[in-house]
Amino acid sequence: MGHSKKQQEVRAKFDRAKRYSIEEAVKILKELSYCKFDETVEVAARLGVDPKHADQMVRGTVALPHGTGKKVRVLVFAAGDKETEAKEAGADYVGSDEFVEKIQGGWLDFDVAVATPDMMKIIGRLGKVLGARGLMPNPKAGTVTMDVARTVKELKAGRIEYRVDRQANVAVPIGKISFSEESLVENIKTFIDILIKAKPAAAKGTYMKGVAISSTMGVGIKLDHQSLLADLKR
Length: 234
Description:
By secondary structure, this protein is an alpha/beta fold. The chain has nine helices and nine strands. The relative contact order is 0.26.
């Protein structure tokens, strides 16, 4: 790997222990990226919640203003008018029983599944397959809905789901290293803002314990979340 002189300078100045503003962190991340492929940029937050308690579960969806840069293949389980609506909104696959059969036969060429509520009884048979891969339509994630057109459009545009894991961490892809600094900054701010608003009433003590951004092959850069919180409250 040929590191340019500039990268070496940036690397020398970069301090793993320091907490940076979002703008600085994004700049460093882009400068330190040397991969030939378009790396994914990820935000990871450590939260002061105990996810074992249902009332401290943090999950939801966020529509990133600049999308994630990843093509999202959407499968919609729907019939009749809703089937037409899904197709017109740009869903990649739309149908009902035939897709249940395809999935039972091992087909999984989609990234998100959406269903109208009446379809849940036929999808029930796919619980094991879809559940294990996090592909099961779910009302909490906004993927069991009658508002099919809007959901499909949002998913195609970069609406992502987030949920806290057992260790109280939340990590999501928020774009590609090729995005402009402004786009990455706006996506990160949008996500952190939503995450702060999702704070459960039952969570005690410090909620936002740490936030970092990283690229697929790059280093993790800590964000100064104290100043972030102050900024977002303004």
